[in-house]
Design goal:
The complex is a heterodimer. Chain A is α+β, with helices and mostly antiparallel strands. Helix content of chain A is 31%, strand content 17%. Chain A has helices at 26-33, 89-97, 106-119, 125-131, 142-152; strands spanning 4-11, 14-21, 52-55, 58-61, 74-76. A 5-stranded mixed β-sheet of chain A has the order 2-1-5-3-4, with helices on one face. In chain A, helix 2 (89-97) packs across helix 5 (142-152). The longest helix of chain A has 14 residues, at 106-119. Chain A is globular and about 45 Å long. By secondary structure, chain B is α+β, with helices and mostly antiparallel strands. Chain B has helices at residues 12-22, 35-41, 77-82, 84-89, 91-97, 103-106, 111-116, 125-130, 236-247, 261-288, and strands at residues 5-7, 26-29, 48-51, 62-65, 68-72, 134-139, 142-147, 152-154, 157-158, 165-172, 178-185, 196-203, 208-213, 220-224. In chain B, the strands form 4 sheets. In chain B, strands 4-5-10-6-7 form a 5-stranded antiparallel β-sheet. A 4-stranded antiparallel β-sheet of chain B has the order 11-12-13-14. A 3-stranded parallel β-sheet of chain B has the order 1-3-2, with helices on one face. The longest helix of chain B has 28 residues, at 261-288. Classes of the chains: A alpha+beta, B alpha+beta. Chain A binds chain B through residues 1-3, 5, 22-25, 44-47, 49, 52, 58-61, 63-66, 68-69, 112, 115-116, 129-131, 133-135, and chain B through 1-6, 8, 29, 32-33, 36-37, 39-41, 49, 51, 53, 78, 101-105, 107-108, 189-191.
């Protein structure tokens, strides 16, 4: 039986205080304990980006972070992007530009793109490509994804 | 995932005591981008994981004092790549930090983790060798300063002793104007480990320092003080002879899946010449800009 520790954090603006096993990842915590299944489990080695979430303003692969490390942090997952049932402009752009095919990588792509636009509201195409380089899309929608991000860059679409 | 104990020391003294008590059973968690992969696939089986990210002494950031820049152990690649001091004095280190993994990896991976994991492909290693870094390690009996060239042994092995923890990396601010560049070869652009990772600097006194990794069990640094490599007007054959001597330290593994040894050796030459040229150009620009 693994040791557990009490941790506190906010996730999508909601404060949580729970006990977690020290040997589970933040991804396990988000999907299995909090039942926020938008964040996807895929490669489990930090190469595909499907599990990307934002911790204290920066994107991380949640499969490479222990849940206990989230103690005291603020986390944003894809479930936190829409407000009052309205998709964010970025999410709407993914739909409009065909940036989601099978949809499995989409939550990670959205979170990476969201973080990119937060830190750099008007990225160039090259900056978009670099910003999303840690998110693989096996359907090969890269151009549509980049188009979607570009279409809301600089506040367009807001 | 396998079970292990988890400790989150608040001070270096506590961390060092834990490391000393548990010895090889203790594995340090900094950014976790290597450790957590190993925990999951079983290639790492620690009795206790020591999370050093909450230790304030390691989070000193990047500070300049008395002719040297000190980088706190848990400084991330993202922080290194965007830091004004690093970009001004050690631009090739900023370039290397900017190409490690992906954005998500760079937001977590730390400078100390990059060198302590001692991957032959560590991108921070060649610039740290070129800039003559010193590794600061705390232990039960005090602090030890290890020249970076005496730190690496082979993949996954360093000269850190039981109970020692890297607390910072120190870099002397270059006394002379120089031009430097980090270059690398990967299978895909964006997110990959290097098949060859290389750094070169040329300074106004004619000293060329060249370091490379991912072509042998540990990264290698070579220095040419003759002025020949730094002189674009010197005979190509003479410069090639010196470069070939520098590359003699390369011995790429036959077992790596990323690239074959012949390819790596060929690319090492291509990147070496290219880096030498760019570093020389940048030295020229530094001179022009005063």
């Amino acid at each position: 039986m693994a040791e557990t520790l009490p941790i506190e954090f906010t996730i999508n603006g909601v404060h949580r205080a729970i006990d977690v096993a020290v040997n589970i990842t933040l991804l396990d915590l988000i999907r299995d304990d909090l039942r926020l299944t938008g964040t996807k489990e895929c490669c489990d080695v930090g190469e595909c980006g499907a599990c990307t979430v934002i911790v204290d303003g920066r994107t991380v692969d949640s499969c490479l972070m222990l849940a206990v490390e989230a103690d005291g942090t603020a986390i944003l997952t894809v479930e936190g992007l829409a407000k009052d049932g309205q998709l964010s402009p970025l999410q709407q752009a993914f739909l409009d530009k065909g940036g989601a095919q099978c949809g499995f990588c989409t939550p990670g792509q959205l979170i990476s793109a969201h973080a990119l636009l937060e830190s750099n509201p008007s990225p160039t195409r090259a900056e978009i490509e670099e910003g999303l380089a840690g998110n693989l899309c096996r359907c090969g929608c890269y151009f549509q994804i980049f188009d979607a991000v570009e279409s809301v860059a600089g506040g367009a679409g807001k | 995932m396998q079970t292990f104990a988890y400790k989150r020391p608040a001070t270096v003294a506590e961390a060092v005591a834990l490391l000393d008590r548990h010895g090889p059973e203790a594995h340090v968690l900094a950014g976790g981008t290597d450790l957590v992969v190993g925990l999951r696939d079983g290639s790492r089986a620690p009795g206790v994981v020591i999370d050093i990210k909450r230790i304030a002494e390691l989070r000193l950031g990047i500070v300049e004092e008395g002719g040297r820049v000190t980088i706190g152990a848990t400084t991330t690649m993202t922080e290194l790549a965007s830091n004004a001091l690093i970009r001004r004095h050690f631009p090739a280190l900023a370039e290397a930090a900017a190409v490690v993994g992906s954005v998500q990896i760079r937001n977590r991976a730390t400078i100390a983790g990059n060198i302590c994991n001692a991957s032959p492909a560590a991108d921070a290693a060649p610039p740290l060798l070129v800039y003559d870094a010193t590794v600061v390690a705390a232990g039960l009996s005090g602090t030890r300063r290890i020249p970076i060239d005496e730190f690496f042994v082979e993949s996954g092995v360093t000269t850190l002793a039981r109970g020692e923890l890297v607390t910072a990396i120190e870099l002397p601010v270059p006394a002379r104007r120089s031009g430097a560049v980090h270059v690398r070869r990967t299978r895909r652009r964006g997110h990959d480990l290097a098949s060859v990772t290389l750094c070169c600097s040329v300074d106004e006194a004619g000293v060329t320092r060249l370091a490379y990794g991912s072509v042998g069990p540990r990264p290698v640094v070579c220095v040419d003080e003759s002025g020949t490599l730094a002189d674009p007007g010197a005979p190509t054959e003479a410069r090639a002879r010196i470069l070939e001597g520098m590359f003699a330290g390369a011995s790429p593994s036959k077992r790596s899946m990323r690239a074959g040894p012949e390819y790596r050796l060929a690319m090492l030459r291509v990147l070496g010449w290219r880096a030498l040229q760019v570093a020389t150009e940048r030295l020229g620009e530094a001179r022009t800009n005063g």
